[in-house]
Amino acid sequence: MKIFSIRGYKKSGKTTVATTLIRKLKEEGFRVGSIKSIHIEGWHIDTEGTNSYAHKEAGAEPVAAWGLEETAIIFPRRLRPMALLKYFNNDWLVVEGSLYLPVPEIVCAKSVEEARELRTGLTFMFSGVISNEMDELDGLPVVNPLSQPDKVLEIVMEKVFPALPFFDCGDCGTDCTGMAELILKGEKTIKDCVMMQKDNVQIFVGGKRVPLNPFVQNIIGSVLKGAVYSLKGVEKGKEIRIKILDPELL
Q1: How many helices (H) and strands (E) does the chain have?
Q2: Which CATH topology does 2-38+66-159 take?
Q3: Closest to 180 (Cα-Cα) out of 249, 192, 171, 49
Q4: Region of residue 8 (phi > 0: left; psi between -120 and 50: alpha; otherwise: beta)
Q5: Where would I find the beta strands (DSSP E) of the chain?
Q6: Is the pLDDT of residue 250 over 60?
Q7: Taking 90 as the threshold, does the pLDDT of residue 18 lie above it?
Q8: Which of 5, 16, 7 is nearest to 149 (CA)?
Q9: What angle do CA 183, 103, 86 make, to 5 degrees?
């Protein structure tokens, strides 16, 4: 899965960029998921007075609101990024806001000063309000999503690479943030990630091995370790093997 984020202050044009890219990627035939990161104190998905709110207040976790046209699963807490990502199995994941993971990012800004303030080593393009005034800033393209939607898509397709394992093993001589920055600079490729070349998690169904990319391996491995290590008498750091023999359990 390829993941990128769109960062910027309020009213800088993040949603316009996000929705433009979601539409363009869908037009290309990709499966696209999205995350909207919300930083508002006291904001809740559910509202007081609804039945699902009452279930949550009673202590249920998670709570599923199963409607005729939509389904929502509500956790009464903020999930960690990796826990959230396990619910996505898309070709692309568009994050409006920060996911606090080393993924390529587009910075939306209202001014040059704002753009420079928000830029990091993971920034590969500027957009938003500032794109009405210029088409380049400090060596990076500044692209208007409304007048140049195809160019925005072209740059995203060129620069965004498959998600790193987010494991920070250090085997590459740097962490995942450093590796992501080097890939964006063109000094490394995704193949230089040592963890991406390992098969730490293997799944066989009916004797046939199911191919897993390193990102999915990391998610499955993290979930399994968390569940197994919570059991009494389990020694950490040992190989874990799990067999499910009864298909009815699946």
Answers
A1: 7, 11
A2: Rossmann fold (3.40.50)
A3: 192
A4: left
A5: 2-8, 32-36, 63-66, 71-74, 92-96, 105-108, 123-127, 136-137, 140-141, 203-205, 208-210
A6: no
A7: yes
A8: 16
A9: 130
Residue 249, pLDDT > 70, answer no
Per-residue pLDDT tens for 25-64?
Answer: 999 999 999 999 988 777 788 888 888 888 888 888 888 8
Q: How far apart are CA 175 and CA 90, in angstroms?
A: 25
Backbone φ and ψ for 23, nearest 5 degrees, come out as: -65, -45
| Position 198 pLDDT exceeds 80 | no
Domain spans, the chain: 2-38+66-159, 166-229
Cα separation values, 222 from 85, 99, 150, 225, 229, Å: 12, 18, 37, 5, 10
Query: What pLDDT is attached to residue 134?
Result: 96
- The percent of residues in the chain predicted with pLDDT above 90, rounded, is 50
One-letter amino acid of 233: G
Alpha-helical (H) ranges within 28-169 are: 51-58, 81-85, 112-118, 149-159
For residue 57, the surrounding DSSP H or E stretch is helix 51-58
> Residue 123's beta-bridge partner residues?
105
DSSP 3-state of 140: strand
pLDDT score at 41: 79
Whether the predicted pLDDT of 11 surpasses 90: yes
Instruction: Please calculate the CA angle 106-15-134 and round it to the nearest 5 degrees.
Output: 50
